[in-house]
Amino acid sequence: MMESWSFLDPVESNFRPLVVIELAKGTKEETIEWFTKRIVDKKANGGAQLLIKPLVTENGVENIYLVGASHLRLLLGAETVGLVKECNDNSMRTFTYSSRKTFKHFADDNHNFLTMAECQYIIKHELENLRAKNEKMIPGYPQAKLYPGKSIVRRLLTSGILVQIFPLHDREELKKLCHSWYGRVKIGYQPLDDIRCYFGETIALYFGFLEYFTFALIPMAVIGIPYYMFAWEDYDKYVMFATFNLLWSTVILEVWKRICAILTYRWGTLLMKRQFEEPRPGFHGVLGINPVTGREEPVYSSIKRQLRIYLVSLPFVCLCLYFSLYVMMIYFDLEQWALDYHQENESNFSSLMLYVPSIIYAVVIEIMNRIYRYAAEFLTSWENHRLESSYQNHLILKVLVFNFLNCFASLFYIAFVLFDMKLLRQSLATLLITSQILNQFAESLFPYWLQKRYNRRMKKQMCSKKTDTDLSLSEQVNMEKEMGTYFGTFDDYLELFLQFGYVSLFSCVYPLAAVFAVLNNITEIYSDALKMCRVYKRPFAEPTANIGVWQLAFETMSVISVVTNCILIGMSPEVDALFPDSKMDLVLTVALVEHLLLAIKFIMAFVIPDKPRDIQIKLAKLEFESLEALKQQ
Amino acid sequence: MMESWSFLDPVESNFRPLVVIELAKGTKEETIEWFTKRIVDKKANGGAQLLIKPLVTENGVENIYLVGASHLRLLLGAETVGLVKECNDNSMRTFTYSSRKTFKHFADDNHNFLTMAECQYIIKHELENLRAKNEKMIPGYPQAKLYPGKSIVRRLLTSGILVQIFPLHDREELKKLCHSWYGRVKIGYQPLDDIRCYFGETIALYFGFLEYFTFALIPMAVIGIPYYMFAWEDYDKYVMFATFNLLWSTVILEVWKRICAILTYRWGTLLMKRQFEEPRPGFHGVLGINPVTGREEPVYSSIKRQLRIYLVSLPFVCLCLYFSLYVMMIYFDLEQWALDYHQENESNFSSLMLYVPSIIYAVVIEIMNRIYRYAAEFLTSWENHRLESSYQNHLILKVLVFNFLNCFASLFYIAFVLFDMKLLRQSLATLLITSQILNQFAESLFPYWLQKRYNRRMKKQMCSKKTDTDLSLSEQVNMEKEMGTYFGTFDDYLELFLQFGYVSLFSCVYPLAAVFAVLNNITEIYSDALKMCRVYKRPFAEPTANIGVWQLAFETMSVISVVTNCILIGMSPEVDALFPDSKMDLVLTVALVEHLLLAIKFIMAFVIPDKPRDIQIKLAKLEFESLEALKQQ
Questions:
Q1: What percentage of chain A has pLDDT greater than the value 90?
Q2: CA pair distance B96, B103, nearest whole angstrom
Q3: Could you give the C-alpha distances from A71 to A11, A111, A542, in angstroms and in order?
Q4: Do A159 and A23 share a domain, yes or no?
Q5: Can you tell me the mean pLDDT for B525-529?
Q6: Do A624 and B291 make contact, defined as CB atoms within 8 angstroms?
Q7: Which residues of A145-174 are buried (b: 16+ CB within 10 A; e: fewer)?
């Protein structure tokens, strides 16, 4: 292995820029020199052994650098990050440089063996793992302290010397991808494998889930339409619809796990070993010895963190929840006022006015969700979690609880306190549709319009009439560095999660919700695709094997929806009429049915295997081989 | 590695017998010769490289063989099975022969580095992995077919040539263990580490769980006593007791996971890699290619198995459940008859007669459970599962469902159909106490008495007055080979599971159940210890990291008990009196409380980490080290 590192040529003729590094204006010369030297330095000397070139524009050098790597370097990097690729015998195996010949499509001159997203991921990994040796500080910046083993890039980022690192778009590939993805109106699947090659597994998995979820909603939507069209109000039909919905939602979540396993097996991430998690960039503390690694690094007492969580964050979240409920009560006052107004002067205008409170409330909910999001991010960051995963879990928990209450509290109140099914239906429809329109607009269309305007201005400045693919490298870099940053799939999943809530929590009252969800998701696929390709900087690929905590969130929602739907059905006058003598029997029957449904749900989740049989066999085969290899040693 | 195998001396002067092999009387000479040759043969020739000696008694050679191994052979075997031992730096690591010097208490002349149970486990593993090479059949038995890779010992067992293999007791050690375990009456913990050294992890973990469970029941028992003594019938006290019980049962099950992790980390099994599972002995099918291993071995279509499960086993289980309910109805007829009798001639005798139906029913339940057990074993074996674990899971599921219904159906019927709390209390007490007495008797005391009688007869035959520790080897082997075989911890866990049901399902009606459970478990520890040490053959040690499916079973029971207790409290006249106006409000309140309790349960299970923090850090440290080692390669 050591030999392969040594015969790497530090300068290669065909330099292909992959990643852009933007340093702050006025960064000291000695810092730049030290940093670039560390990037190109040999592995044995503690460098990253990558290639780096300054970007030269008409205005001269602008502290923007392009990073690339030789083909061999990338292959060795693929081994370091533990990429899993397909072999000639169609099995998936962890790539190693020594066994490279056994992999499908491998040839020493095939520079497409690794996708561009993979190359960029490797470079990001190598840059982040560039660690301080004996430096006590960043040269030229005495206040930016270093200690042995500290990631240099992370310190540069937190001290503001490094503005950003982002991967370059590949204009050719992007054009092809856009065309096959959303360029033409067609009915069919998204090119998930191409998306994965270009954007990486996390984003491809999101689009896979979005597509799957849309397809899964279609049966609900199809069954829901006649309820609206023929205004069916029969008891048995509603019960059938709700029962179908509840079981269906369990089935689709279980089947998704299987589809996810198929996708990530094909992409290799199902087999990828988990890397050891380094502290997240914002983590700080006094220097101490990490009990796990034995290295000197900042440590922060877990008790202090717990105190911050339970004494500050938890009360703050509760306060926000209370505030959200308070706003809800104002909404009901407004609603009452609109109703009074409508009854006093009955006109077309006044009946339209009936919808105004809901719409205002929907807008307020969206605004509150966004403000709370910032507060939650600030608080979670202040809690000073050591690992990114722990930070993410705490953030997601905070945001989910608040958004759930904020979006659904009014519906729960209408349903179970006011018992007003008409208002529930109207409120549900207004909230669902308004939030969908707002989201699509705020998330994709508005940024797209901004971006387009900016691009036009840029091009005018450059006095060029070239199309995107003809741009020079420096023009491309300058354009892309001003684009917004995509902060991950969190908001996208959250939107789907809330939509799932609107569809399933009160499905027996408003069967049309699934129809709106399907329509929204179809346009969502297009607007999200547009957003990824045109509005934001290219994000770094992130390998992942599943949708993580969202699976749990969706499953929890489907459990809650069993409870709400059972109560709703129990409250309907049709069901009421079936038990004329005893309300007791009614409630007991509903409770019994609810428990039965929950039991069936859990049994189904238990019985349906999480991975299809052929994937299970392939995994068992790999495990068997590694055990055999261990025995041979 | 290969070198270390070659310098093994096949015959060593200090032969220590560890395992006994009993062949059938009249086994052909050529078979014995071939089998013993394979056992002593070099690893390189496909042998097990163990030592074997025939047992010579006064009656000559009796087809009983003693197997041992050299010290070096055992150390190499420890590496093969992947034993985890404590290092000099107090960390737990997988033992390898090359790194032997880094392990605590290791010395080339220390023959106690491996416990006797570990040595026996290694020998069992090596014997079971003795595989056919080119033999088409067992020499001398053309009907006992072999194919390359088939385990020879398993074929010998299934064709009846091999009667049994069992590990020898160590009379000295056993005496010491008995003394510290149950020899003197004392209040304190069991010597779990010594039990683990002598009997292995599975059995030690059972006794650990039994002890933990008994301690965990004490708070319930302590709180339960005043309810009985002062005949408290206040509503609030019952609610408090039930609520405490429900949350307590969640806490104890979660805390057990942590204690289990502490124990198995110390014993090394928490870190042990799972071995590849070979087909179970009884598995049969036509020869084919296993898709996982690529080896030729019997394959059996999964569809056929599914058909057997769903078309035969499932209907059979349903029929048994129906039969159990039928027997229950007969019991209620008897109960009615006893009541009538009591009312007609009121006397002491007739009031005693009131208990007779329950006692008869309890005995019948036990008998039915035992008969059903055989049927379930037969059916599950007929389903022809490939893996022992899959066989066990199907067997446990079958047995649990039936035993649950069989034991608790009558109680559910009394509680929720007859609404007779007095009968419920009486029936519960009778069932619990009768089943405990029956179990202790049938499981330990009766076999112990049989064994003792047999031993006395044996000794009389041998005309010797020696104590157990003075017996000659041949006498010891002859005595032990006639002892019963311990078939694993299944029945012991099942007993605890049903006991947990009696205690928790109706805890708010009969708080005294926990007291009986504690008393029973204290004697259970002693009688089970007696059973292990005196009644049964020594079982082979089985490494395990947790109590497996039983954790899930206990957790399911505690969820069900939330439901039953909430209903029971809701039905009590005291609670009834709190809602004089509306039964509706009562039922809704009960349902709300139930859902809240369930939610709290799930959140608690989620929040309490499954492993204590220091074990988590130790595991992370090992993972980090292996990742670092991989990088260095």
A1: 33
A2: 10
A3: 12, 7, 21
A4: yes
A5: 88
A6: no
A7: ebbeebbbbbbbbeeebbbebbbbbbeeeb
Residue B323 included in any domain: yes
Please state the domain count of chain A: 2
Residue A523: how many other CB atoms lie within 10 Å: 12
> CA torsion sign, A71 to A73 to A76 to A81?
negative
SS (H, E, C) A286-347: EEEECCCCCCEEEECCHHHHHHHHHHHHHHHHHHHHHHHHHHHHHHHHHHHHHHHHHHHCCC
Cα separation, B98 vs B105, in Å, equals: 16
Q: Which of A327, A333, A335 is nearest to A407 (CA)?
A: A327
pLDDT at B556: 92
* pLDDT at residue A419 in the model: 83
Helix (H) or strand (E) holding B224: helix B201-229
Which residue of B lies nearest to A595 if distances are taken between CA atoms? B563
Domain termination site, one of A371, A386, A401: A386
Give the CA distances from residue A14 to residues A8, A17, A97, B554, in Å, rounded to whole numbers and listed in that order. Answer: 14, 10, 21, 65
Q: Residue A60: its pLDDT value, please?
A: 67
Question: Based on the number of CB atoms within 10 Å of its own CB, is B310 exposed (0-12), middle (13-18) or buried (19 or more)?
Answer: exposed
Is the CB of B627 less than 8 angstroms away from the CB of A1? no
Chain A to chain B Cβ contacts (< 8 Å): 48
With contact defined as beta carbons under 8 Å apart, do B398 and B313 qualify? Answer: yes
Q: Judge contact between B220 and B507, C-beta under 8 A.
A: yes
Residues A333-350: tens digit of each pLDDT: 998 898 898 888 888 888
Contact A588 B584 (CB under 8 A): no
Instruction: Tell me the pLDDT tens digit for each residue of B447-489.
Output: 778 878 877 777 776 655 555 556 778 888 888 888 888 888 9
Hey, are the CB atoms on B591 and A587 less than 8 Å from each other? yes
3-state secondary structure A70-130: CHHHHHHHHHHHCCEEEECCCCEEECCCCCHHHECCCCCCCCCCCCHHHHHHHHHHHHHCC
| Start-to-end Cα distance in chain B | 19
Q: How far apart are the C-alpha atoms of B603 and B155, rounded to whole Å? A: 50
- Evaluate whether residue A353 is within a structural domain: yes
Cβ neighbours around B284 below 10 Å, total? 10
pTM for the structure as a whole: 0.87
B-chain CB neighbours of A5 within 8 Å are none
pLDDT at A625: 84
Minimal CA separation from A523 to chain B, in Å: 37
Instruction: Inspect the interface and report whether the beta carbons of A621 and B1 lie closer than 8 Å.
Output: no
When pLDDT is cut at 50, 70 and 90, the band that residue A327 belongs to is: very high
> CA-to-CA distance for A415 and A93, rounded, in angstroms?
53
B343, B367, B386: which is the final residue of a domain?
A: B386
ipTM for this prediction: 0.82
Contact criterion met (CB < 8 Å) for A621 and B292: yes
Q: How many residues does chain A have?
A: 633
Question: B143 in helix, strand or coil?
Answer: strand
- The chain A residues in contact with chain B (CB within 8 A) are 1, 80, 273, 275-276, 291-294, 302, 563, 583-584, 587-588, 591, 595, 613, 617, 620-621, 623-624, 627, 631, 633
Q: How is residue B150 annotated by DSSP?
A: -
In a domain, A313, yes or no: yes
Chain B residues with CB under 8 Å of A275 CB are: 627
Domain assignment present for A445 = no
Place of tokens 């040690």: B541
Task: Report chain B residues whose CB lies below 8 A from the CB of A623.
Answer: 276
What residue numbers bound the domain in which B77 lies? 19-168
Are residues A159 and A23 part of one domain? yes
pLDDT at A212 over 60: yes
Region of residue A581 (left: phi > 0; alpha: psi -120 to 50; beta: else): alpha
d(CA A268, CA A615): 12
